[in-house]
Design brief:
Number of helices: 14
Structural class: mainly alpha
Shape: globular
Distance between the termini: 28 Å
Radius of gyration: 21 Å
């Protein structure tokens, strides 16, 4: 048995009989939602200014580079942080056993994957400027993964108030400095450098808060444990990798068929869709420890908690989707000014995904917390393969509208698949 998860099932642990999580769920969701809302709004301002100042071509370069960097470094976030949350929620000593090795493993994998990508990019015909932006954003993403592992400890210990203390200064600082730099004439490389500096500053802040406010885990490395950690995280990591492909591959594939201008236009619509996702992230992150503590004896409470989290997210998501579907031109013009009118149909096609994404996200979080990861891997694996195949047909035929339609179809399949799996698991043990 892998040591990271060597405790008995959550139902046998005293913590499972703790006070009902409802009130704490709302408070924790508020902390996380406030931090995500503040960071999303800050980055939204930066993206809007970037889209206006750099135009569709420069914005397309940034968006393509960011999506590619996320894809190639996804193995750095191979499910270890979610595994830590689940393990620490069940057994607080798990932090001391695995924390240092988790960080070292994430850094090694992320930097290695980025180095290989940078070595291969010159042979693909990608412009040198784009290669530089991929490298800068890739380094930033690896640092963000390490920071998120610290935030996962705050989440597991239900010290959610510490999360905005890290996220908000980072995102706000990047947005303010980046916006100022863009108005002073900064190009896409300058924005990528600013993004990297923000990530460089956030990590030491997260380290200081962890060691000063929560715990001081030993930083002794035991490399021989790394294969066992990878095996333990493999199911969650595969699900994460497939979900990342589903979420990012359309931007990369679109660039293979269209110009940076088309990618920038699509990125304008896609960023408006992304701005709604903080709702799912905040509620899901706050509910994960509570999901993890419940076992077979707590199925009624688990069903009630899943319904509550879905309700918390869907109530605001539905009107947002209606606005995106009925007023795409107005939203794009309000956000970016002129030059993005061609993305109106793409935003209209993405609107249903605003409602579909929270369903798959929260059902997936519940399954991960309960240890039902294999069906999650299966669903996301099938949908990721379907999304790539669909994009190969839709993007050449319909350009950015095809990419948007492929995203919404895939999100619908993910929501249906994970919703059915979650329903089956919650009824299975009645």
């Amino acid at each position: 048995m892998v040591e990271l998860d060597e405790r008995p099932p959550a139902a046998t642990l005293p913590v499972a009989a703790a006070a009902p999580p409802g009130g704490r769920l709302v408070a924790n969701a508020l902390y996380r939602t406030v931090s995500d809302l503040a960071s999303k709004l800050a980055l939204a301002v930066l993206y809007i200014v970037m889209a206006r100042q750099l135009g569709t071509e420069g914005f397309g370069v940034f968006s393509f580079a960011f999506s590619l960097a996320v894809l190639v470094t996804t193995l750095a976030n191979f499910g270890e942080d979610k595994l830590l949350v689940r393990s620490i929620a069940r057994d607080g000593t798990a932090l001391n056993r695995t924390f240092a090795d988790t960080l070292a493993l994430q850094g090694s994998i992320g930097l290695g994957a980025l180095a290989i990508t940078e070595a291969l990019l010159p042979f693909t015909g990608v412009a040198e400027t784009t290669q530089i932006v991929v490298a800068l954003l890739g380094l930033a993403i690896v640092l963000d993964v390490l920071t998120s592992t610290h935030l996962a400890i705050f989440q597991a210990r239900e010290r959610m108030a510490l999360i905005p203390a890290v996220i908000v200064p980072q995102r706000l600082g990047v947005a303010v400095v980046g916006t100022y730099a863009l108005f002073r004439g900064a190009d896409v490389v300058g924005v990528a450098i600013i993004y990297l500096v923000g990530s460089l500053l956030a990590l030491p802040l997260a380290i200081a808060l962890l060691r000063g406010e929560v715990a001081r885990p030993p930083m002794r490395l035991r490399v021989r444990r790394w294969p066992r950690l990878l095996v333990a995280a493999l199911p969650i990591g595969m699900a994460t990798a497939f979900a990342t492909i589903l979420f990012r591959v359309d931007m990369v594939m679109l660039r293979g068929y269209e110009s940076a201008h088309a990618v920038g236009a699509y990125a304008g619509a896609y960023r408006l869709f992304e701005m709604t996702l903080f709702l799912s992230a905040g509620v899901g992150a706050s509910a994960l420890p509570a999901f993890s503590r419940m076992g077979p004896a707590d199925l009624p409470a688990l069903r009630a908690l899943l319904r509550k989290t879905l309700l918390l997210v869907l109530v605001p998501s539905v009107p947002l989707a209606i606005v995106a579907a009925t007023m795409p031109e107005e939203l794009l013009h309000l956000a970016y000014g002129g030059g993005y009118d061609s993305a109106a149909d793409a935003l209209r096609l993405l609107a249903p995904a605003i409602v579909l994404y929270p369903i798959s996200f929260l059902c997936g979080y519940m399954l991960v917390a309960q240890g039902h990861v294999r069906p999650l891997v299966t669903v996301y694996g099938i949908v990721a393969a379907e999304n790539v195949a669909l994009n190969l047909v839709l993007i050449p035929a319909f350009s950015l509208q095809g990419a948007a339609l492929g995203t919404t179809i895939s999100e619908a399949l993910a929501a249906i698949g994970l919703g059915l799996v979650a329903r089956a698991k919650l009824r299975q043990e009645r």
